[in-house]
From TrEMBL:
Catalytic activity reported: O-phospho-L-homoserine + H2O = L-threonine + phosphate
Family, similarity comment: Belongs to the threonine synthase family.
Threonine synthase N-terminal domain boundaries: 3-77
Assigned keywords, A-Z: Amino-acid biosynthesis, Lyase, Pyridoxal phosphate, Threonine biosynthesis
Biochemical pathway: Amino-acid biosynthesis; L-threonine biosynthesis; L-threonine from L-aspartate: step 5/5
Highest taxon in the source lineage: Bacteria
A single GO molecular function term of this UniProt record: pyridoxal phosphate binding
N6-(pyridoxal phosphate)lysine modifications at: K107
Cofactor(s) this protein cannot do without: pyridoxal 5'-phosphate
Keyword Amino-acid biosynthesis on entry: yes
Lineage: Bacteria, Pseudomonadati, Bacteroidota, Flavobacteriia, Flavobacteriales
Full protein name: Threonine synthase
InterPro entries in the record: Ser/Thr_deHydtase_PyrdxlP-BS, Thr_synth_N, Thr_synth_N_sf, Thr_synthase-like, Threonine_Synthase, TrpB-like_PALP, TrpB-like_PALP_sf
Natural source organism: Flagellimonas maritima
EC numbers, comma separated: 4.2.3.1
Amino acid sequence: MKFYSLTNNHNQASFKEAVIAGIAPDKGLYFPEKITPLAADFFEKIETCSNHEIAFRAIHQFVSADIPDSILKDILKNVLDFDFPVVEIQEDIATLELFHGPTMAFKDVGARFMANCLGYFSKNESNEVTVLVATSGDTGGAVANGFLGVKRVNVVILYPSGKVSDIQEKQLTTLGQNIIAMEVDGTFDDCQKMVKSAFLDAEITALKKLTSANSINVARWLPQLFYFLFAFKQAKSKGKEIVFSIPSGNFGNVCAGMVAQKMGMPVKHFVAATNVNDVVPKFMHSGAYNPVPSIATISNAMDVGDPSNFVRIRQLYGNDLVELKKNLSSFSFSDEETKDAMKEIYSKSEYVVDPHGAVGYLGLKKYQKKNPNTFGIFLETAHPVKFLATVEETLNISPKIPPQIQKVINREKESIKINSYEGLKTYLMGT
Ligand SMILES: Cc1ncc(COP(=O)(O)O)c(C=O)c1O
Ligand SMILES: N[C@@H](CCOP(=O)(O)O)C(=O)O
């Protein structure tokens, strides 16, 4: 399988090359040349398959030219060692809990999958690789955890100072070893731009082999399609058409779900729910894509003003807005609406949802109002405890701190403060 650049489709790479490079030399995101539907009987019998089997069938076409089947099976065993339960909280409304991994957000699967692939590809190499990653909160912790101690790999995480939760900050600044955290005086978009600039900086790339562990990297992005298949397996018996509502920021997760649909998974519709960072909802309405600086919200991991993956979503539908709208709706919600949704879910169902999941719930409710008789699944993308202050203040409860979080909560933060691209460049050139 080849992957081509969305900037210039003549720039092609194998899976291995795309993973090692992160983005194409022309700064485009890599995209698979073909998405082959899985056999119909795979979906008919999906409930008889283990998660490992499902993941293997799903990812095989993208990686098999570069990873032997036996290694791929081992990687998936390492990566998928926790549960992905669908929990019904109201009639025809369920949540897909994606927070049972080591850093309690949905990024764990992609981060670990990419770390395993890179570990395999660099097994016989002597050169070091530097993984650059921009985070608005959760990617950083997952990548730090997934890459900790991986030989010949150094990780540099850029995060917006004061704009991630206390627990998210602990997860990405306290591990040490091969993980460096850079605290940027700016927004997530500034961090993301700095990472993309470093890839194009010949002075840096002459000295360092760089890659990215954001969802721009196909090995971080594609495994996210597993979630939708795991959810479909659990919800199929409901006998209703399924709608997924995905709290969205960089739009990698919803895009991975749409890949699962292209592979033949029956889905009625996707909803990409955002906070007030509403570039995509506006685009879906007007057809004009106008990135703007992001605004800080209580669902901070979705504070993205120029979502990287929207270009992939448009590609999936041949850049045809009419076709796209048949499959995707996108709605935006304020912090007040988000808090009200957290309260509503808690009072109706005694279920504690985090602010991101609450945005997903709101998107689903809005869609189901006009499309009743569907089974709706909103993705709970992070454990509520990661947003402790907001949850405590909104619901007036003190959730128990799970062991994964207790491990980091009392550790000392270590970060390098920078206020411009030069700060990142100086660091990369000097180490
Ligand atoms: C908790 C949480 N929810 C939702 C999102 C948005 O996901 P995506 O960037 O794939 O749209 C993120 C960050 O990516 C996140 O950390
Ligand atoms: N919300 C993300 C932002 C980066 O998204 P990614 O999927 O492209 O890594 C975060 O939590 O950092």
